[in-house]
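cron nightly-structures :: item 1 of 1
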Amino acid sequence: MGGAHPTSLTMIPANWPQTYREAVALQEQLRHQVQLVPLPHPPRFVGGADAICDRADANIFGAIVVYSYPELELVEEAGAAGVCPFPYRTGLLSFREVPILAAALKKLRQPPDVLLVDGQGLAHPRGLGLATHLGLVLDLPTIGVAKSRLVGQGEEPGIDAGAASPLVLAGKVVGMILRTQKGRKPFYLSPGHKITLGQAREIVMGCVRRYRSPEPLRQADNLSRRLRSETVNLDARPRDAGHDSPR
C-alpha cells in the first residue's frame, strides 16, 4: 500500500467538537440513536479498525483490514493519515479516531459487514465509546474489543477459551469479559451499533486463530503502526536522498 503522509482531515465536519463540553454534549445526543439489534444475516466480510498517534500527538494514522468470514482470508486493507483532531481525554477517544478511521474505510473497495474496533462500545460512561460512535457515523454494525476496562463490574471468567462473564454498569449488562485464548488476558467486549452482544461474542471468537487478538484487529494494529513508522522514516530521511540513492 505504501506510506501515507499526514494531511489535514478535510472530511472533519466544520462543527466537529473542539472542547470537552462540546464532545460530551454530542455523546449525550448520539447515545439515543444507538441500535442494539440482530444482524440481518451472517457476515461475509469482517473488518478490524485501529488508529495510533505519533509521539508528538500531532498526526494520527488509521487502518482498516478486511477478512472473509468465516474463512479468515485477507481481502483488503486501507490506511489514512492526518492531523489529530482532538486531544487525548478519557472517554472521548472517538473524537480523535472516528474521522481517520472513516477516511480509511472510504478507500476500501470491499467494505466489511461487521467492524471490530480497538476500543469500547456500549461499555462507556455515556454508552458511546469509539465502536458505537464509529458505527453511527458509518451506519455499520460494530463491536468494541477493548484491552482494558473503562466502566462496569464483572468477575474474572474461567481460564478456557470462550469463557465469559457479564460486564455490568448500574445494574445493566453493557458487555462481557471474554477470554479468547486459554490462560491469556481477557478482552472487554461490548456491542457498538446494529449488533447484539451474543452475536458480537460469536464473531469475535470466530476471528481468533493463533493469537489472543482477533485476526482483523491484530492486522489493523500492525498496519497502523507500519503507517506511523513509514511516515517517521520519511520525515527523518536526508533531504538529498532520492530515487538515485544507493539501495
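cron nightly-structures :: done
The two ends are 20 Å apart (CA to CA).
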